[in-house]
Amino acid sequence: MLHTVKLQTYSLFAVLLWTAAWCAPLAAQAPAAAAGTAVSSPTGASTTSASVGAVASEPSAAVQTEYRDTVARAVVEFDAGRWNEARALFVRAHELWPSARSMRTLGMTAYELRNYAQALTELQAALDDARRALDPDERAQVSKLIEQTRAFVGRYRVRMSPADAEFFVDNAPRALGPDGVLVLEVGTHDLVARAEGREPIRRRLDVQGREDAEIELTLPPTAVAQVAAPAVPSVLTPKRSAEPKAEGGARLWTWIVGGTAVALGATSAGLWLGSKSKYDKLRDKCDMTPCERGTTDTSSIETLQTAHQVTLGLALTAGVGAIVLYFVEGEPDEHETEGVSIGLGTLGVHGRF
Fold this sequence. Notes:
Radius of gyration: 51 Å
Order of helices and strands: HEEHHHHHEEEEEEEHHEE
Oligomer: single chain
CATH superfamily of the domain at 35-134: Tetratricopeptide repeat domain
CATH architecture of the domain at 35-134: Alpha Horseshoe
């Protein structure tokens, strides 16, 4: 009988030990679940900072403590309408413990700051994030805020070819997501797409709100054939060639000989006027006082008259030569370009004058 009582006692003790061992993990989880104390959200709703299903991904206790303190300070700033300060604190909280709930607060502050494109992106991310997912009431509140935000933005799916083209919005680079979605706030925006070897494309959008459309940006190849600029001969590059011929009749020599004829003619006229002036003075002198033959010096007058006759003859010869060259050299070539070429012992000038 005594042995039977001892056996029952040992059996009961073993059952108690097994029960304690089985309940120990649950007892360890209880403080973590209890640590998710209620924190007032920006909308005034009560939210817990943790759930039993997310225990495995929770940060350390120290990080959770800093997170709750940061959220509490952010809520105070949010309720006071200090949106920039509130967002800065919510960003820090999201860095400490990223989740759907922290993303929701970012979307709410972006909306209050009137950054509607950013608000729409963050609010949608809060709905899609499975980490500490939103409860039904929070999802309904975020969905309503998304609908309000759509009135102030346009949503576009951008298709670019080539796909790796650079994309700019209002002169600032803009990276598109894998789905190519671009969210723009109401107003006028300039879009530019660029790629190497392609012509850039520019498009202007006037966003009214609630747009949901596609944009095709196909960059055409850059034209390969380019019109070559006419080459201008360099005056510093010697050319081992004979003196250039007057192709197309640029009439260079016509102008040179004609100019020489004009210069000689002007010189001849000057000499004639000089001799005439001296002759007139001598004649007036002799009219007042009779001059004896052989006593008056007229050598200077004779020299001027001789020079006049020589230069006049040269001017006439040059004039005739210019007329002949005018017909020999022909009409100027409209494709002729001006330039100077240097050869061995030669200097050539060609062009239209």
